[in-house]
Amino acid sequence: MGSLLEDVTQEFEISSEYAKKRLDKVLSILYPDSSRTFFQKLIKSGQVLVNHIPQKSNYQVEAGDFISITVPKSQEIEILPENIPLDILYEDQDILIVNKPKGMVVHPCAGHYSGTLVNAVMYHCKDSLSGINGIIRPGIVHRIDMDTTGALIVCKNDYAHLKIAEQIKSHSVTRRYLGIVKGMVQQDTGTVKGAIGRHPVDRKKMAINERNGKPAVTHFKVLQRFSCHTFMEFELETGRTHQIRVHMASIGHPLLGDVVYGNGKSPWKLQGQALHAAVIGFLHPSTDKYLEVEAPLPEYFVSLLQKKL
After folding, report:
1. Backbone φ, ψ for residue 220 (5° rounding)
2. pLDDT confidence of 2, banded at 50, 70, 90?
3. CATH no. of 78-170
């Protein structure tokens, strides 16, 4: 169906393959870039009409139903610098590499317009940040999950951004993670392959999706086996959203504390998955020399390893 445009009404007719399905579910299938929750809000506010009449999210569509969707123009959000301490691993005139703490969102999004890494780097770097990704993501060339800790590159100018982005796209950036998974992984080393795309039902999750997903490859190595858990190193050949979390869950070893792809239960009251972006390496955008930076393990992770897991 393409993408939804702001301040533009889009109209279409329901085909027979979607008959008897919920209105919100059908819309999230037809427009996979937008979540089911997003459409529920549009429907509730009267921005979605069925045969020119407002309906509820659970309305079951029929073949031939005429749908019109209007996405209101979004309000401009002012993102402000905030004096938030940064754990800086490396810095020069082109790039900044920070050790992101657990619980910090990388860039502003719904429900998180302050306290993000972007707010912090805006204060630290002033006006020296790349603008390629817009006002919401200044300097941000890649991301890690809110509850994943570790090394993250911030670009101070557009040239650096483009050079780093090219390496990320070609999968030439070295990315090694450390994590603790549930269960005893029997192989000392191995590789998990499986295309990753949106979950067919839960649009907030990713899943192995060979039909609509993008190729994903994760190499792993066992570092230490405990009674019920395994301490592992992961090296990414690709960098899909939630890649390590999805791949390890797919082979029966979800990350410890992962509330999305595992049950999240543990006796240590973890805040999300035990996963750390330990090493990042790439060709420096100005010198073209290989630069590799290591982020030390956070205290909670060290403490876990000292327990009888």
Report:
1. -135, 160
2. low
3. 3.30.2350.10
Which of the following is catalytic: 24, 65, 94, 145?
A: 145
* Higher per-residue pLDDT: 170 or 132: 170
Out of 3.40.1000.10, 3.40.50.300, 3.10.290.10, 3.90.1300.10, the CATH code matching 9-70 is 3.10.290.10
CATH value of 171-309 in 3.30.2350.10, 3.40.190.10, 3.40.50.720, 1.10.10.10: 3.30.2350.10
pLDDT at 1: 58
Can you give the pLDDT at residue 92? 96
Collect all residues with Cβ–Cβ distance below 8 Å to 277 and sequence separation of at least 6. Answer: 100, 144, 148, 149, 150, 151, 152, 175, 177, 295
124 vs 12: CA distance, rounded Å: 48
> Which residues of 71-148 form beta strands (DSSP E)?
88-91, 95-100
Active site residue 92: no
Residue range 253-298, pLDDT digits in tens:
999 999 999 988 888 889 999 999 999 999 999 999 999 999 999 9
What's the pTM? 0.76
Query: Cβ contacts of residue 215 below 8 Å, gap of 6+?
Result: 193, 195, 238
Tokens read off for 262: 């595992």
